[in-house]
Write a structure and sequence with these properties.
The chain has 478 residues and is an alpha/beta fold. The protein has 15 helices and 23 strands. The relative contact order is 0.09.
Length: 478
Amino acid sequence: MSETPRRVHFVAIGGSGMGSLACLLKARGLQVTGSDNALYPPMSTALERWEIPVRDSFRAEHALDTEPDLVVIGNAVRADNPEARAAIDEGLRCLSFPDALYELAMAARHSVVISGTHGKTTTTALVGHLLAATGRDPSLLVGGHALDFDGSFREGQGAHFVVEGDEYDTAFFDKTPKFLHYHPRTLVVTSVEFDHADIYRDLEHVKSAFRKLIEGMPKDGVIVAAQCHAGVRDVLRSAPCRVISYGAGEASEGMDFSARELVAGPAGTDFELWHGDLQAGPARTSLHGPEGVENSLAALATCAALGIPEAESLAALPGFRGVKRRMETVGDRGGVSVVDDFAHHPRAVRASLGAARARFAGRPIVALFEPRTNTSRRAIFQDDYAAAFDDADRVYIHAVPETPLYSATGPVTERLDCATLARDVSVRGTPAQALDGVDALVAQAIAEIPPRAVLLVMSNGDFGGIHQRLLDALPDGT
């Protein structure tokens, strides 16, 4: 391992992982600088709070002026980026984000990696919460703002480092998945579905990345896996180590950890915890919906694998406060709630609407959806999205402009047709409209809003500040 750097510069610092590592290093007392294009909360807020100077845009001098000992290059950076190019050409030491994270923060710890198409952020934060609440003092880096830690990272003195393991590629100079760089000793696999169509050709291509991750596990490692899902079962066939299975609902019978008799309430979900065919007793999680219960089971099973008595984990489970932008209530006005969620994949949209239906029982659920990712703006999930909104009472779809889409798998020939999607959702029984521009969407939603509605905003971006605009537009007595 190289000598610990004193000055570190981040190219594309605004990514959730990049910004979190930058803040962690600043908390250690290192001199940290960065650059990026437009930033938005919560990462922009975190960088400001830690007083990390961020220069707008990418220029060669941004990487060279501070004479850094290390330059960390994010995976959003292309090979022709002038800042990254200058750092490399000048012979500065450059690392990808996952390599920098592992070298600087994880190498000496027990690596607990949370992977999967869905639920990574919540499960990572929840495992960190349980370890901290039971006195294990973990370190953590998560792709979101964990409310229990008031941030996206935690540096403890305990044996464990919990990290969100993404299957996206590492950098322009390293096309391997990021999660391969974290060398897990304990691995969680929440789900395996097709996503990231800009770098993966199809589901089988995605599965190949997870198989490589699993095949690289040490023989004395542990995999905690949602084997109630076919994609997870498929990639586990070559697992070289112990596997602990979990699942919620009908498909969970016989799992090592399972949840039955789910009962939702405003504060969370009660369920019966089972180990195989043995009933372990009642449990409560602060999360909603079957997916939220699955995430809770993953965290309980992970803690059990790490040697934590189950009674301690169960006692800490209801206290989990969640993650910003994951079913986060950002405001209430006149009896109407505005809730922010990160959902963008069809399954995530379906899960978020189901969780909202459980949490806000008896209230109308109005979905406002922005297809913003490289995957969601393609036609790949045109039909899947139509079925994903069944739990909504009304749907508004932001018809985003047809800007160029990045693709490493070939030219993008077909895009998501938002007007067709709105029509298909309506045919299934939920009134839906596709609207150009956030102003039009806000105006239409406010004009048609039912009393006591929950406005569930779903996007992986800032959605043009729509959350506050909705709150500002709501009349006090709605």
